[in-house]
Amino acid sequence: MLSRRHLRLKALQSLYAYFLSSDFEITKSEKELFRSIEKIYDLYLSKLQFLIELRHVAKKITEENKLKHLPSAEDLNPNLSFIENKILDLLEKNTQLNYLCTSRKINWGNDYETVKKIFNQIRESDEYSNYLLKKDKSFIDDLNFIVDIFTNYIAENEFLEFLYEEESIFWTDDFFLVNSMVIKTLKMFTEKSNENFELLTLYKDPEDEKEFISKLFRFTIVNTDKYQEYIISKLKNWEPDRIAFMDMVIMKMALCELINFPSIPVKVTLNEYIELSKDYSTDKSKIFINGILDKLIAELKASGVINKVGRGLVE
Length: 315
Fold this sequence. Notes:
With 315 residues, this protein is mostly helical. The protein folds into two domains: 4-188, no CATH class; 223-313, Orthogonal Bundle (N-utilizing Substance Protein B Homolog, Chain A), CATH 1.10.940.10. The chain contains 15 helices and no strands. The protein has helices at residues 4-20, 26-66, 73-76, 86-93, 95-103, 112-123, 126-133, 139-154, 158-167, 175-188, 206-222, 224-233, 245-260, 266-280, 285-302. The longest helix has 41 residues, at 26-66.
């Protein structure tokens, strides 16, 4: 489920691209923004589907081993703990997951060798060996094992991340969020879960969150000249062209939120954009942006341009 912080990040990326582009079509750029957000859910579904595909690979290898010219006793009587894992079974039977993956054309059918390679890494691990040796496995044992292998072999797998980045440029900054969504989903399963288990949604409140991201994106663009004037008025011994381009976009977004979202407290907005500057701009940006915004907040509050109400009054 998307947080406001991740929505701000997506808006920042889209605004950065918009201001650098020669194509100034707001509607077109906004559609791309929402497309990039929607793709996050595809990544979530894809990672859940990958777990199911591991099971398919395990089944295929098991059947192939039985057909060997001289199969071993283990080939003929394999340990089926992984194939019969209750969590993998629930995922594979999940009605919603099956429908969404089919409708969005998400599958690993053409990547058998990739899935097999990662399954073999898992199969050679201590986690896998210990899991197979454990007698009378409980539902919790099955759950903990799947969470462990997802965390250790899938979530931050560099080869998988490379494949995902090849498929969509939108996903680079989404891996951490989606991995947490997958783990949260797995931990929501209980022994009473069935094929109607509900997956996480992308938005907590779709109407509210979509309105937030659209307004933030559009109002930053429409008022960009005004916000730039505010920023320039607080520069001392600095020429505007010396400001890092990303810093300027971040400050314009912050001003947009401060002015146009009266229910969001000033402190929340300031902290959120300082955090963005730490991750996506220069080492000195945090101090610079904080200094400029502090001065502007005091001035714009005094003049009534920033006017908070309700929850936004919280300091």
